Structure formats: C-alpha cells, structure tokens
Amino acid sequence: MALAPLRLTTGRRPSRGRHRAPRGVSPRLLLTPGGALPTLGSSAPPTAVRAVGATGPLACSWLTRYPSREAGAVQRYERIKRATDVAVVLVMAPLWLPLVCLVALVIAAGSPGHPVLFKQQRTGRGMRRFVIYKFRTMVPNADELKAQLQHLNLRTWPDFKVDPDPRVTRLGRFLRCTSLDELPQLFNVLRGDMSLVGPRPTSLRPEAYEPWQLARFDGPSGLTGAWQVAGRAHPSFDERVRLDLAYLERACWRLDAEILLRTVPELLLRKGA
User: 3-state secondary structure string, the chain?
Assistant: First the structure.
C-alpha cells in the first residue's frame, strides 16, 4: 500500500498545545490510500496536493499501519514523551556516559589543543535555533575547505555531501559509520532541545525551506526518525521531509518504539553511513 497524497490546508486554527504553524499554513496532514503520486515542484503553492513518501524502495509502507492521531491526544502524548526521554537517558547513563568520556579522550589525544566537540546552530521545533553537540570528526579547518569542495557535491542544494570527504579524519570515519559522533546529543535531549524520536534538526534556517516543508517544525527534533530507518543517507531532501511529516501526523508510543527498534540494526549494519 503506497503512501498517498497529503493536503496542507490554509487558514486553520492550530490545536491547543501545539506550535503555531507559519502564517497561512496548517500542518494538518490528510493521508488517504492512493494511487499515482503527483510530481513535486518548487513553484507549487503551499495549498497544493503533496506526496508523502516515495514510490520506490525507500517508501515506508509500515507507516501506513498507524492512523492519524487525534488533536486532543497530542498534548498528553508530548508530556509523557518528554518524561520518558529524560528517564531513558538517565537510566542508560552508566552505559553511554563512560563511552562519551572515552571517545572525548581519544579525540583530544589525536589533536591536542583543538576542540573535542563540534557545535553547530540547528533549527528545531517552532523554528527555534539551538546549539547541537557532536564529536568532531573533521579536521579543525573543515569549514574553510568546504567552499573548495562544492564542485564535488553529490547532492542538490540544500544538501551537501562529498564521498569520500577528505576533511574527515580516520577516527572520524569510524565515529560516523557507527553514529558514535551523535552521542553528545543525549545532552541536547536532557536540555529539552531534542527528543529521542522526531525529525532530525538541520543547519538550514527556516527561510531555506519551501512553505509546505515548514510543517516539519511542528514537533520536537529527534536523535532518530522515520528517514533514518528508511535508508539513512539515501533519501532526497524532499523525501526526507515527507517522511518527517508522515511521522508527525501519526506520532504515538508504538510508532516511537518501532522507530527506535528499527534504528538498532541500521546502526549495527552501518547502513547509509
């Protein structure tokens, strides 16, 4: 069963307890069993019918098992979700905290005098900018070298990916393919910047998104999400956003648990790294 079109309606008052959508756009998604999916275009208005998911092997058909959540259940779900995030991170601290310290020591020993953590402004829920933490996996002057590698970019804007990326260190390649570089984001979860499951925050500012894509900021950002378990690095930017919107429309405890469980083999098999 293919994921079918979603419709963004305009002029609708947002539900109580949820972030107010950009003016004139409501994040309410109407998903129905469908056939052919319409073609997306950057010139289409925000009220146009948009496609959720993809028609190829990256389509997450398992998402269709979850119904659209009721507006009245959102506030209660998110309160419990926040409490669960904090509880899980704290309970697992004896496992991940020593690992964080070990990785930090190895990075510091390999490049004395340079930062261990990479800090970057990301856009999260409500289009709020916050600082995300990651272990540094590149050479210290990576930002300066990025302009010289634009001609090797394997993706279309706003994505940037060079493979192999000469800026990545040997240790950095290991940290990336095992996702250990993301461990410091558990501190972001404790701070309330992120959740365990949700759309991944990007470095792009809200104005870089098309109007229909802004609905992805209606929920908390996550360590993992729908597109991480649908090929991780492979979906296009539009496909990733559509998967995020499909998740937000259906977000519930069972879906969060399934995404977390699906993330484990993705990490162990190093898919999309």
Answer: CCCCEEECCCCCCCCCCCCCCCCCCCCCCCCCCCCCCCCCCCCCCCCCEEECCCCCCCCCHHHHHCCCCCHHHHHHHHHHHHHHHHHHHHHCHHHHHHHHHHHHHHHHHHCCCCCCEEEEEEECHHHCEEEEEEECCECCCHHHHHHHHHHHCCCCCCCCCCCCCCCECHHHHHHHHCCHHHCCHHHHHHHCCEEEECCCCECCCHHHCCHHHHHHHHCCEEEECCHHHCCCCCCCHHHHHHHHHHHHHHCCHHHHHHHHHHHHHHHHCCCCC
pLDDT digits (tens, 9 = 90+) for 42-98: 333 333 323 343 333 345 778 888 988 887 788 889 999 999 999 999 999 999 999
Q: pLDDT tens-digit profile of 177-232?
A: 889 999 999 999 999 999 999 999 998 899 989 999 999 999 999 999 988 887 55
Match 């899980």 to its residue by tokens.
Answer: 88
C-alpha 211/C-alpha 261 separation (Å) is: 32
Let me know: does 74 contact 14? Beta carbons within 8 Å.
no
9 pLDDT higher than 60: no
- pTM for the full predicted model: 0.72
In the numeric block, which tokens belong to residue 197? Answer: 């499951």
* Phi, psi (rounded to 5 degrees) for 122: -125, 160
β-pair type (117-123, 129-135): antiparallel
From CA 35, how far away is CA 52, in angstroms rounded?
A: 12
- Residues whose CB falls within 8 Å of the CB of residue 108, separated by 6 or more in sequence, listed in order: 116
